Amino acid sequence: MAGDILTQNEIDALLSAISTGEMSAEEIKKDEQEKKIKVYDFKRALRFSKDQIRSLTRIHENFARLLTTFFSAQLRTFVQINVATVDQIPYEEFIRSVPKMTILNVYEVSSLNGKVLMEINPNVAYAMMDRVMGGRGSSLSKIENLTEIETKVMSRLFEKGFENLREAWGTIADIDPVLIDFEVNPKFLQVISPNETVVVISLNTVVGETSGMINICLPHVLLEPIMPSLSVKYWMQTNKSEGNTEDRIQLKKQVKTADLPVSASIGSSMIAIEEFLKLEIGDVLELNHRYDHPVTIKIGDVPKFTGQPGILGNRLAVQIIGETKGGEEDDEG
């Protein structure tokens, strides 16, 4: 009620209720206080702003595109990966949400002094492994009996795929994730404190006719050093300053190595088509340019310099002796 504007009739009714004893001022204050109370679960602290969640979503949408390209090339089959959800939850809740037996990869990010957890649904993992081993991409469920060869194949495949995370995070931080652990039972994996807030990015994954989820778990302690960089304001400013500067440097390098046609015009002549058809070797054409005057040197179609024709070794050459006035203006136009 504190945020509402009362009409005169409502004010009169309220004063009447207080004066007649139907409602007391204490009850009004109590109701107002109760409305201001908000339930807050300290075990599920929201430590990331919506702005930061949006930035993480953008980063991993790019990562999903990179993974789609990588796995499509590696598996030589239809692969589609996209971001389904991005949530912040306690680590304990994330561990409870994954299957009892699944594929769990732990990556260490030394630059941020933390670890990243990646959980791959067994259906997806086995379909990928079957394709790598030369199969059709069928999915099996024998995760409890993984052989050493199967474990090695899976680890290497996902380790190479996760290298794309470095490129996806390139605009925010320089990271180098390294696979340090492979596990199938989440109960044996304790990366951080159970109550620690984590961001879970769920990727909807389709491999051939098999579908499942890939979940990436990012602890708050890992992201804390780069939290300011996850704001949209910082991201846009960085893009405008550093990004544009880098683009200009790259563009400048490309322009410097670009090939440009250079031509020297020694004059021109106008003749009839009938005369042109009768030309033979040894015929002489009269040009509109004196032999002792400088020739015009063009860069592309723009006159830039004047020169003197001659011979260098066994080749025809032109020596630059001056600049053409108005060449800069023509180039800018």
UniProtKB/TrEMBL annotation:
Describe its membrane topology: Peripheral membrane protein
Matching Pfam families = FliM (PF02154), FliMN_C (PF01052)
Segments forming domain Flagellar motor switch protein FliN-like C-terminal: 254-321
Q: Where in the cell is it found?
A: Bacterial flagellum basal body; Cell membrane
Mention one GO biological process in which this protein takes part, according to its record.
positive chemotaxis
Q: Which InterPro entries match?
A: CheC-like_sf, Flag_FliM, FliN-like_C, SpoA-like_sf
Coarsely, its chief localization is other
Q: Which CDD domains match?
A: FliM
What UniProt keywords apply to this chain's record, in alphabetical order?
Answer: Bacterial flagellum, Cell membrane, Cell projection, Chemotaxis, Cilium, Flagellar rotation, Flagellum, Membrane
According to its UniProt record, which protein family does this protein belong to? Belongs to the FliM family.
What name is this protein filed under? Flagellar motor switch protein FliM
Question: Which organism was this protein described from?
Answer: Jeotgalibacillus proteolyticus
Taxonomy, top ranks, is: Bacteria, Bacillati, Bacillota, Bacilli, Bacillales
